[in-house]
Amino acid sequence: MSAAINTVIFATTTKLIAKSTAPLKPCNRFLFNSPSSSLIKTTSFPISATTIPCYNSGIGLNRSIFRAFSSSSSAVNNTMADVSDSSMDAVQRRLMFEDECILVDENDNVVGHDSKYNCHLMEKIESENLLHRAFSVFLFNPKYELLLQQRSATKVTFPLVWTNACCSHPLYRESELIEENYLGVRNAAQRKLLDELGIPAEDVPVDEFTPLGRILYKAPSDGKWGEHELDYLLFIVRDVKMHPNPDEVADVKYVNREELKDLVKKADAGEVKLSPWFRLVVDNFLFKWWDQVEQGTLQEAVDMKTIHKLT
Questions:
Q1: So which residues are the catalytic ones?
Q2: Which of 44, 176, 224, 272 has the most crowded Cβ, counting Cβ within 10 A?
């Protein structure tokens, strides 16, 4: 992000804070992309606890603030106009340009980073073979029912499809690049469960995620967008509180095995849509692993050495 855009964002934020009557408190986790670094730098100043809460993800601005940036900051919009779609939802546009995905090779070695926008352009995927790291969370309640979400209508890729509890990307930041015990991916999963489903971090401790395996797949969403991911499959059994974020999620539900099988039949009949990564896991692994979740033998299924290339 350019210095000019940072200046506009700072000015816009200051105006919004000035309008708030809530008491101010210090926050040391207000983050901007640094124009001189591929990572992130921190700025500290007092902000309103109600207007701009500090989430544990490290991104201090909430989505309503960024909507204000998108609608009121013509400088930001003009700077991005040559690469953004005018029809794209403001929140999704912000994520597309701000989030930096981790680029990997087919052996899951980190080779760089690029914007979420570029990583999901089929033209870039095909011409540059861009492959990014991702994760998919499979969350079961104590009754061993699987949580599903329907992606929101404003999602750029695969809107309104049904999928597993949470599917996203670790970002190119220190806490999500940690390779040891797959901690970076686990940190990212905890962050996105809060962001998408409003599940508090204490409900999904990072050490409760079981990384079962990795898949590599490519899937077009439409003529322009698609996925090319090396996807970590994370399983967790927890009783959680949820407050789904409508910017990310249209609907949620828990299903048992038979209900999921019925959903797959409806997808085969064209009545509903399932995400390609979820369908690959369902067809290749899920029901066997589901048995092991119930039997308490899930550790026997762990295989983090193999990268399954699925089509």
A1: 167, 229
A2: 176
In this structure, what are the phi and psi dihedrals at residue 128, rounded to the nearest 5 degrees?
-115, 0
**Amino acid code (one letter) for 216:** L
Site of tokens 């990384």: 211
Backbone φ/ψ region at 120: left (φ over 0), alpha (ψ -120 to 50), beta = alpha
Per-residue burial over 29-46, b if 16 or more Cβ lie within 10 Å, else e, is: ebbbbeeeeeebeeeeee
What does the alpha-carbon distance between residue 241 and residue 181 come to, in Å, rounded to a whole number? 26
CB 253 within 8 A of CB 223: no
pLDDT of residue 289: 98
- Coil vs helix vs strand at 21: coil
Tell the residue number behind the tokens 């403001």, with chain if given.
Answer: 90
Q: Give the per-residue pLDDT at 85.
A: 62
Which residues of the chain are under the pLDDT cut of 70?
A: 1-87
Element (H, E) at 218: strand 210-220
Q: Sort 55 into a burial class: Cβ within 10 Å, 0-12 / 13-18 / 19+.
A: middle
Q: What is the pLDDT of residue 283?
A: 97
Predicted pLDDT at 295: 97
* Cβ within 8 Å of residue 9, ≥6 positions away: 32, 69, 73, 76
Span 166-179, pLDDT tens digits: 999 999 999 999 99
Total Cβ atoms within 10 A of residue 290 = 20
Q: Considering the entire predicted model, what is its pTM? A: 0.73
CA angle 262, 266, 271 (to 5 degrees): 150
Q: How many CA atoms lie within 13 A of 46 on its CB side?
A: 6
